[in-house]
Design brief:
With 275 residues, the chain is an alpha/beta fold. The chain has one domain (10-245): Spore Coat Polysaccharide Biosynthesis Protein SpsA, Chain A (Alpha-Beta Complex). It has seven helices and seven strands; from the N terminus they run βαβαβαβαβαβαβα. The chain has helices at 24-33, 54-60, 78-88, 108-116, 141-162, 192-203, 231-244; strands at residues 10-17, 40-47, 67-71, 93-96, 122-126, 174-177, 209-212. Strands 3-2-1-4-6-5-7 form a seven-stranded mixed beta sheet, sandwiched between helices. It is globular. The protein starts with 9 loop residues before the first strand and ends in a 31-residue tail after the last helix.
């Protein structure tokens, strides 16, 4: 992570990609087309050697000046890919973005506002603002119910262990000052990284602001990769491990430099052949 001086805060959007051919082109196009009035954006894509043509689509976007591509020789888990993206990110603020279009990129503005205003260093985009129900897998009513109940049980565990009051710690939209994780070491490689990241931030005293976001769940038939019986035990282990670890000594966060110019726009002709 760079400490170079700049005129505007820089947002690093970390995008892990594995076998997302049906959505990755549209997702990267929307992310790269996104502009913010007072923040510059870099996009760090970690492509995990997809077998469905996703890598070739990602490489078609590589000439974009705000995009950096990291190519893995083999898939080692979403958490591993995100960790590689975090290590490469140069921004003042980090935002994690999947390539499956379950979340709305237009929510970036609302997610960043509390951080830019100095009210918090950590934001979660909650899918529960309108009620309890967040997952509705087409034709899989009981699977939807199982995942929704499991979500609330694990959320309750986090709230109890970390004295928090969260509604959606498992949201993909985790946004935070890069300085918050500068001294943290991460070890989770799969979806348990979501728990590890949130719980380590909570453990070290960062209380998130939750911002309502739009969400459209995709089913396992659409490519959802969570494993019903394999992954939840790893989430519980990550939560408990983070709770018993000692806190890190927090350094004061540096102030943002006020924005002074508008971002440049760029349109990639290379992406057109994939649309």
């Amino acid at each position: 992570m760079s400490a170079r001086p700049r005129q505007r805060p820089l947002l690093s959007v970390v995008v892990p990609v594995l076998n997302e051919r049906s959505t990755v082109c549209k997702a990267l196009t929307r992310i790269l087309d996104k502009t913010l009035s007072n923040v510059d954006i870099e996009v760090v894509v970690v492509e995990s050697n997809s077998t469905d043509g996703s890598r070739e689509i990602v490489l078609g976007f590589q000439p974009h000046p705000r995009l950096r591509v990291i190519l893995e020789d083999r898939p080692q888990g979403k958490g591993f890919a995100v960790r590689k993206g975090l290590a490469a990110a140069q921004g003042d603020i980090i935002l994690i973005q999947d390539a499956d279009l379950e979340y709305d990129i237009d929510d970036y503005d609302a997610l960043l506002e509390p951080i830019l205003a100095g009210r918090t260093a950590f934001v979660l985009g909650t899918r529960h603002a309108g009620g309890m129900h967040i997952r509705d897998f087409a034709g899989q009513r009981w699977m939807s119910l199982l995942y929704n109940v499991g979500h609330w049980m694990l959320t309750g565990l986090i709230n109890v262990l970390f004295r928090a009051n969260l509604t959606d710690p498992f949201t993909m939209y985790k946004v935070f000052r890069s300085e918050c994780i500068r001294r943290m070491n991460f070890g989770c490689n799969r979806f348990d990284f979501d728990c590890e990241l949130v719980c380590k931030l909570l453990r070290n005293g960062y209380s998130p602001v939750e911002i309502p976001v739009k969400y459209s769940s995709r089913s396992f038939a659409d490519g959802k990769k969570v494993r019903t019986f394999r992954d939840p035990p790893t989430w519980i282990r990550a939560i408990i491990r983070c709770r018993i670890q000692p806190r890190l000594e927090r350094a004061p966060l540096s102030p943002f430099v006020p924005a002074q110019q508008e971002p440049e726009k760029w349109t990639s002709a290379n992406a057109d052949s994939f649309r």
